[in-house]
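Late entry, written up from scratch paper. The run itself happened at the end of the previous shift, but nothing got recorded in the book at the time, so transcribing now.
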Amino acid sequence: MKILVDGMGGDFAPVEIVKGAVKAAAEIDETVVIIGPEETINEELRRNRWHGENIEVVDATEVITNHETPAMAVRKKKDSTIVKGMNMIKGGDADIFISGGSTGALLAGGLLTLGRLKGIKRPAIAAWFPRIGEDGNTLLLDCGANVESKSEYIFQNGLMGSIFVEGITGNRMPVVKLLNVGAEEGKGDDLHKEAFEMLKAASEAGQINFEGNIEGRDIVFGEADVVVTDGFSGNVFLKGSEGMALAIMKQFKSKLTEGMVAKAGAMLAYSKIKEIKEEFDYSDAGGAPILGLKGAVLKIHGNSKATEVYYAIHRAVDYVRNDITGMIAAAVEKSGTSDSGDSEE
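Output as recorded:
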């Protein structure tokens, strides 16, 4: 197995990318392939005193930035890390691609180079959302791949998300819920009502374990293993929640350092404060899979450091070993929604 890592993807590349790759490669038998300017990557490997045999370097001289038009950049920059990485996945030279680069470029590159799985109407970005007071995370999708959606897309999100969680965590019947304005059946606009009925029918047929609607405030308490929605709602919910969590922690820190008494109390409660911070931390989530492509792709945060890269590589091993891509293709074919999928562009 070869795990391909974008050595120039993210705010702290290549330093943190290589550091995380070195740490992970020392613990696994699989080969880690870092793609980027060969001389730069090799220099970072020397700086990290890497002497193992399961890290390879593939030269790529260009980088696609967040300021470029994704589709145009993918077509123009043929020697970029993202385009070259996607071509390696397509050609079978690597099994999975991890990148903290431009999300738009990853989607464009995935669609233009790899293409969609047969029957998948639209790929989806899935992200792990922390559960407060419980172990594990909830998978939320779509988180922004498709801001304009149809009920079929949301339904297929349920299938893909359920398969991913089962393959990665071993949970054979993950609970799937639909993000909506109310928990009762019949809530929402026509889009979500139609998606509800499709998910319900699939559950009755034993394809997924759908348990109805969920309101945004309940996701954090772990009431579902998979939460599905359209890309617009998912992206707004995810970024709004991240912003709120950061604001709470910032205010919490501010109040605990206002005076000597507060600082003394903070020292006494340090272990509990650390536990709270860890519950909001996503660094060990292992990246956000772009599901529905003819190849395995994991998107990590653009501000990822070595820890996030390390966990993403470990997650990638499980992704490939469990053949998540193949399982999704089989499930979509079995669901009967694959007939018209390839006709939509």
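The mean pLDDT is 90.
(Scratch paper discarded after transcription.)
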